[in-house]
From TrEMBL:
Record's protein name: beta-glucosidase
Organism field: Linum tenue
Chain segments annotated as transmembrane: 476-497
Enzyme class: hydrolase
InterPro entries: Cellulose_Degrad_GH3, GH, Glyco_hydro_3_C_sf, Glyco_hydro_3_N, Glyco_hydro_3_N_sf
One Gene Ontology term of the molecular function aspect: beta-glucosidase activity
Reactions catalysed according to its record: Hydrolysis of terminal, non-reducing beta-D-glucosyl residues with release of beta-D-glucose
Alphabetical GO biological process terms: glucan catabolic process
Lineage of origin: Eukaryota, Viridiplantae, Streptophyta, Embryophyta, Tracheophyta
Gene3D superfamilies per UniProt: Glycoside hydrolase family 3 C-terminal domain, Glycoside hydrolase, family 3, N-terminal domain
Keyword field: Glycosidase, Hydrolase, Membrane, Signal, Transmembrane, Transmembrane helix
Amino acid sequence: MERQWFSTCCVLLLLVLVSCNSSFAAAGAKPLYLKYKDPKQPVGARIKDLVKRMTLEEKIGQMVQIDLTVASSDVMKNYYLGSVLSGGGSVPSPKASAAAWVNTVNGLQKGALSTRLGIPMIYGIDAVHGHNNVYNATIFPHNVGLGVTRDPQLIKKIGAATAKEVRATGIPYAFAPCIAVCRDPRWGRCYESYSEDHTIVQKMTEIIPGLQGDLPANSRKGVPFVDNGGTKVAACAKHYMGDGGTTKGINENNTVISMNGLMSIHMPAYLNSISKGVATIMVSYSSWNGKKMHANRELVTGFLKDKLKFRGFVISDWQGIDRITSPPHANYSSSITAGVGAGIDMIMVAYNYTELINDMIYQVKNRIIPVSRIDDAVKRILRVKFVMGLFEKPLADLSMVNELGKQEHRDLAREAVRKSLVLLKNGKTADKPLLPLPKKAAKILVAGSHADNLGNQCGGWTITWQGQTGNDLTSGMFPVLEQFCLCFFFFFCYNFTIRI
């Protein structure tokens, strides 16, 4: 009996010791080492380690970009989504402050970080002439005005100022620059083009190092670069390609041109952009010789990725996959096959993300879309995120909120407006030219339908996609427009022509 009691006590003691040892081990255990979370590891090794851990659902989630209006922390978590955007006019609230933007972006980011692998999302926005979606931001001239300055260094400074204002709102990704070569002034988006001359557009790609930072000397061609110091953003060269050469200038129409013409007119600025480390490239709604660019494997994969060795990610335009068919969304499953197969890595689906995700999962499981194509897309998206430092610092803070609408940036905008005014012919009176004007003019007539309408003077992509009319939102938002008013005065009152 005593022997049995002794044996029982020994067993109990052993169990206690084992339990205590386990507790001590757990308390002092090192956290599980994950190579993809180690910033000391090469980017390639981090990508490889993370991709092999991901499920199909997690991979496809990385390829999906939804609009702010349908995004939430739970949606980010439940669908493993890789990106959110603010389309034109998509804001946290009317006249939202920089701090409100930061809090909104961080709230969504926390949802992404709460997933099993904690992959950060990337938030994008159209910042095409300043941080134009955001109230109180500095508004710069559109590209048509910047192109005539013939001043690449000025454009680089504008890129740097824009990057700071975008970062001030917690956003690390700008859908800019538009490097379309507008060949027909009837095109409604000509104002988004720097010039009809591709050599000028090429020079204006200097905005990319302004947005992203200067490419290090030892960088490999085609590899994306974004300075991760916190003041730069990922850029997006768009719209690949030929969007400015459509027949009769009709938007989203067919660009009828030979391969030689396409390469000599519409491609050169993309070569410059890639050589400067542009992180992403957006595909055009338009077609080339009848083939939709969103379904053009020859140009997206064959040329851009394989020949030019572009290693960033390719993103669709807003619901661009839907528009492969006419009418849009007519055969969505087929469009997904064509778009993803062409080489589109991230899909700006905007709203119907569950339909997209479910269809992509079905197509991969049924071997319609190869897993290798999904892996290629995910690797490219992760490469940009790693390069940007999103894994190390996924959440924004309020340290840069004062960069929004900063006086230094407004002064730069005024300089840009002044340099965008181009005198082609000076009028004259009987005894002297009309310009320069006397410094003390008794009266100046400001005329024309836009003269007292600052919203119209700012044009499209200002607060909303199409811009706004009127003067009710002018407080702090349109800091440079006395220069535009002067422009309209010149145009209507004197016998000479100017171009902006």
